[in-house]
Every structure is written in C-alpha cells, then in structure tokens.
Design a protein that fits this description.
The complex is a heterodimer of chains A (401) and B (222). Chain A is of the alpha+beta class and 401 residues long. Chain A is built from eight helices and 18 strands. Chain B is mainly α and 222 residues long. The longest helix of chain B is centred in the last third of the chain and has 35 residues. Classes of the chains: A alpha+beta (401), B mainly alpha (222). At the A-B interface, α1, α6, α7, β9 and β12 of A face α1, α2, α3, α4 and α5 of B.
C-alpha cells in the first residue's frame, strides 16, 4: 500500500467546519418562519422562536444604510445581525421548596438550569430566562430536584418595547469575538514533545508506555486548562447616538447576562441549543448563557450618568486609542485622549482608521467618535476583563483642530 | 502502525492543535478533538504487509492520548468561554468524540495487524481502501464544490461508513448535552467488518501454521 495514500485522503478531505461557515445550519430561525420564507414542518413550527411584538415609535425612522421599511421586522429580531437569533425570552415561574434545582426544557431550542436552594415551606415568584418561545406558547417541560419541590409556569413575559433610538443603535455591526484564541500555546507543544519522547523511551514495555501516555495526557490537559485566559475573548462596545446609549457585549461560548440590564441576547449559530444557567440568590439572580462552540452578544441598558464625551473635555475616562470622523467622512487618529483633557489634535503622519467593524455602517453627514477605553476607565469598563470600545455618532468635537 | 505512520500522525495532530499562523489555516470553531483524530483514523488502519508486534498498538494509543487530551481541553474551554468547565453540557459531545474516536482507532489498528499476519491481507486492504478512503473521497469529489458529503445523496449516505467521514461530521458538533449515538453506527459496522475479515484471515493463518506444525511433527522420527 502506498504511503502517500493517507496524505491523499487528508488532502481530499477539506474542512468546511473551519471558520464560522462550517457550523451547523439553523433548523429554523425566528425571522425565517415569521416571513414564511422557509418551509418548516409542523414540529419545527412549534419549536420555533416566536417573533417579538412590534416596537413602539415611528417605524419609518431608520438610519442610512439600514434595512428599508418594507423589510423591517418586529422587535429585537429586527435589530439583530444576520446569522444570529434572539435567544432571551422570559417566563414567570412560581417556585416552592424544598427545591435545590430545576430544569426547564424547550426541546432542541435548549434548556434553563435553575439552582434555587429553597427550603421546605419557602416559595418565590421569579422571572427566568428561556432559550425560545414555541409558536403555540406551550410552557417548557419542567423537572425538579428533589421531587417534593414544585415549579409552576405562570406565563410568558412580554419583552420590553424598543424605542426607535435603541433599534438604530442595535442595528450596528457586532463586535467579532471568539475565533482568535482557540489554539494551544508553545508550552503545550513542549509538553507534548516531552510526553512523546517519554513514551517512546519505554516503547518496549507497552503497559508502562500506555500508563505514561495516560499520565502525560492528564498533565497536558491540566496545564493547558489552567493556562486558558478568558480575558481576550470578550468585547464590549458602548454604542451611542447623541444621548442614547446601548451596551453590546460579545463573547465566545458563554456570557453572563445581568437580569435587569439585559434587553436581548443574540446567538450564532442561530439554531444551536442554548443553555441558560440561573443561580437564584437572596436578593436577585445570576444569569449565564452558554452556547458551546458558538458566539453570543448581549444588548443591555447603559446609563452613562454624568459621564460625557465632548470635544472640549473627556468626562468619561481615558481613551487609549481615539479616532474621529468628520461630517465629511474623513477619519483622523487622535492617539490617547486623557480623562479631563480636551480632544487632542490629530496625530501627524498617522493615517490609521479604526477597525473595520467599528467604522462600517455608520450614518453619513454626522461626526463620529470611536475610542478604546483604558482598562477600568469609566462605566461599563469596571471589573471587566474585556476590550471596551466606545462608538458615538453625533459627537460634538466643538473646536476644529 | 509503523514508525513513519506514528510520527506523521502525531505531527499532524499536534500541528492542528497549534495551528500556527501562516502555516495552517485557522480552524475557527471546528472541534479540535475531531481534527486531532483524523490523521490517526486515516493512518491507524492502513493496510500493510509483514507481522508487527502487538506492542505497536499500545504505543499508538500512548502517543495519541496527550494530543487528544489537549484537544479535549481546547474544545471544552471554547465551549465554556475559554474557561474549563466541569459540566456535562460542556464535556458531553466532546468526550463522546474523543472516546469513540479512540475506540475506532484501536479497532482499525488491530484489524490491520490481524490482517497483515494472515495469508490474504488484500481482502482487508480492499475493504479498507473502499470503505475508509475511497467512499468519502468520491463523495467529496462528486460535490460541485468538493465539500465532503456534498455529492449525490446515495454516495453521501454510503460514505458515512467511513470513520473519516464520521470524524468530519464531528467537526461542527458543539451541542450542549449528550449527543446522539447513531452517526457512529455505520463506521462501527465497517470496523467490525474489517475486524471480521482480518480475524478470518488470521484464523486461516493460524490453522495453516498449526497444520504445518503437525505435519512437521508427523514427519519427524517415531
């Protein structure tokens, strides 16, 4: 048998799964069924995410470059980026102890795992996140631990209406996350090499070689597991248009979503089963969305308080990188913008524009500020191991440099 | 597996895990566990001549385990936002891929060794060539874009018997929870068939060896 055969086999087996395009296609996405653009089985219809109610405000108002009125869809599904689906639905539940936990299942849409720790006689009414809403409004299948506990579905909660300003902000390009860091480091390579040499050194004693291989596997796994750094896969963008602010946070695999501050959760691939994890605490709850091998974006409320970004003074926080775009469309790199300082002049000889995903799809004829906040600078950047960008349309540079 | 095959499989699986920029394309969110298994599944059952000691099978498994464990951790940490999570949801499908792949690799390797020891290894060789290599390649070539499984439906269906096609199918499996077992049934059936063919060949070889030994004993001085 030719030794070239395996190489031919490997070469003839391209890997379409490389890159996001290879992920499994969505069984059905919310907007597809709503528009009737895809034939779906009865079962798919029942397990499909229901489109949200229409937002309030003037439906004609839209940003240049955004979908026209005729193609506009309702609610959060109208604002999400292509290739993702809305996966935050809320249901009201009554919990009665003794209850350590419960699983709320919506079939292939996913599950919600609840950790409650209620004692016998305790009861609580809570809002819980669910990965979708069947078109017939059927409740999730509930299983409780222990069996003496009780969880009762009280009904679906209507999502908060979206104002036109939020809809415009939510239509912007999402931060790219989660595909850059999934590779082993050189330390892992060194460990693998050492393990291979160790195994080969005892190749005449197969049991010992197997034992060493097993030990090396555990060692490599432990070392790599401890070295994983979650900080570089999260990205936050503080989207703004005038005085309207929206927080967009992206992450790979899992994302914590504060119950009160989260308006919407988008997931890609759209049809993949999503797992919500809810930990009920004394005075609140911790929500976490998990999508193995997927990407998640959370859209949340952001109240800047007294923080402002105006040309005459930076009243927000130090920006490590600052780019401005004039109303005529010319980008300028202004370097570091210190807290409290006026907008610095463009850096001479530097013609860099901000990253493409931050610079694209913005309305023409208005001034724009794009900047990267220094770690820990200002609202929404505190305590977050993530890159935080600000994208402000309607920026007032005030003075001309 | 011979020494060159072992070295090649190890190097390819490590290369996939390191994915150095500019050398191999970024595998994106594809399952590293499945990618790591592909060279071992392709080379482990490669038909060959000559009798090899059983220790080679153990050596192959011992060399495969560390890269496989690393791939597992990469997949699980990816599923859990780059933090290793000890939950069934994060580990389920990845662990299943690793374990089933390991079993397929061991069985393919064992079948190849059994067949090599027999008098007619070409039965095993032909079956391996068609079932493991040619069907997925033909299915990929029949697709207009060269995508595995993209050819005619019957060919794509037939190609599912190949462990390589199974590994390819696992590339995009990142679902939470414990996945379905059915996709592995077809390659498992092929591997059992390979083992059966190799086992029969091995039995025949043993019978002939026993017969030869008896003949030699009968020819000796009485």
């Amino acid at each position: 048998m030719s030794s070239a055969l395996p190489a031919l086999v490997l070469l003839a087996l391209p890997v379409p799964g490389w890159g996001a395009a290879g992920l499994p296609s969505a069984p059905v996405a919310c907007s597809r069924v709503a528009c009737g653009s895809r034939a779906a089985t009865w079962e798919e219809h029942l397990l499909t995410v229901r489109p949200c109610p229409a937002p309030t405000g003037d439906p004609c108002e839209h940003e240049p470059g955004s979908p026209s009125r005729g193609t506009r869809q309702a609610g959060p599904s109208a604002t999400r980026n292509p290739g993702s689906s809305e996966r935050l639905w809320r249901g009201r539940f009554a919990l009665a102890g003794p209850l350590s936990g419960a699983t709320l299942s919506l079939g292939r849409l996913g599950t919600t795992e609840v950790t409650a720790n209620l004692l016998a006689g305790e009861s609580r009414e809570v809002l819980l996140p669910l990965p979708g809403q069947p078109l017939d409004g059927a409740p999730p299948v509930i299983s409780v631990r222990p069996e003496a506990g009780r969880v009762t579905f009280l009904g679906w909660e209507s999502p908060a209406p979206w104002t036109p300003a939020f809809t415009r902000l939510a239509r912007r390009t999402r931060p790219p996350v989660g595909e850059s860091a999934l590779r082993a480091g050189w330390t892992a390579l060194a460990l693998l090499g050492a393990a291979a040499l160790l195994v080969l050194s005892v190749r005449r004693r197969p049991r010992l070689a197997l034992g060493l291989g097993l030990l090396a596997a555990l060692g490599v796994a432990a070392a790599e597991g401890a070295a994983r750094d979650p900080s570089h896969v999260r990205l936050r963008v503080l989207e703004a248009d005038g005085d309207n602010w929206l927080l967009v946070e992206g992450a790979a695999g899992s994302l914590e979503c504060p119950p009160l501050g989260t308006l919407s959760l988008e997931c890609s691939p759209p049809g993949a089963p999503l797992e919500w994890r809810v930990e009920l605490r004394g005075d609140g709850a911790r929500w976490e969305a998990r999508l193995p091998a997927g990407r998640l974006w959370r859209l949340g409320r952001l109240d800047p308080g007294v923080r402002r970004l105006r040309g005459k003074a930076n009243a927000w926080g130090t920006l490590q990188r600052t780019f401005t775009r004039s109303a005529s469309g010319t980008w300028a790199d202004r370097g570091v913008w210190e807290f409290g300082a006026p907008l610095p002049a463009p850096v001479a000889g530097v013609g860099e524009a901000p990253p493409g995903w931050l610079a694209s799809g913005l309305p023409q004829g208005r001034e724009v500020l794009v900047g990267r906040l220094a770690p820990g600078a200002g609202a929404a950047g505190e305590g977050v191991q993530a890159s935080v960008w600000v994208r402000l349309v309607g920026f007032e540079s005030s003075e001309t440099h | 597996m011979g020494a060159p095959a072992l070295a090649l499989a190890w190097a390819l699986s490590v290369l996939v895990l390191l994915a150095p920029r500019g050398v191999v394309p970024d595998p994106g969110s594809a399952s590293r566990t499945a990618l790591c298994l592909v060279p071992w599944l392709a080379l482990g059952g490669l038909p060959r001549g000559g009798v090899r000691p059983a220790t080679r099978e153990t050596l192959g498994a011992a060399l495969l385990l560390p890269p496989l464990a690393l791939a597992l951790v990469l997949d699980v940490s990816s599923a859990a936002g780059h933090r290793v999570a000890w939950s069934a949801a994060a580990w389920g499908s990845t662990l299943e891929t690793a374990l089933l792949g390991l079993v397929l690799f061991l069985a393919l390797q064992h079948a190849a060794r059994l067949a090599a020891a027999g008098p007619r290894p070409h039965f095993h060789g032909a079956l391996w060539l068609v079932g493991v290599a040619l069907l997925p390649v033909a299915s990929a070539m029949a697709a207009w874009d060269g995508r595995p499984g993209g050819g005619p439906a019957w060919l794509a269906w037939a190609a599912t018997v190949s462990p390589l096609e199974w590994a390819h199918g696992r590339l995009a499996v990142g679902d939470a929870g414990w996945p379905r077992i059915s996709p592995v049934l077809a390659p498992a059936a092929l591997v059992l068939l390979l083992l059966g063919v190799a086992g029969r060949a091995g039995d025949t070889a043993r019978q002939r060896a026993d017969q030869a030994a008896r003949d030699r004993a009968g020819d000796g001085p009485t």
